[in-house]
Amino acid sequence: MSIHRYTERGALIKQLIILFLYSSASRQLQQRSI
Q: How many whole angstroms separate alpha carbon 17 and alpha carbon 1?
């Protein structure tokens, strides 16, 4: 169970990191377009 919870936390953290990187990249693209 502990390992399963750990993997879930890792997946959640990965999703948050990907979301953050995607938002930052989109902001950079918007700045470039402007």
A: 24
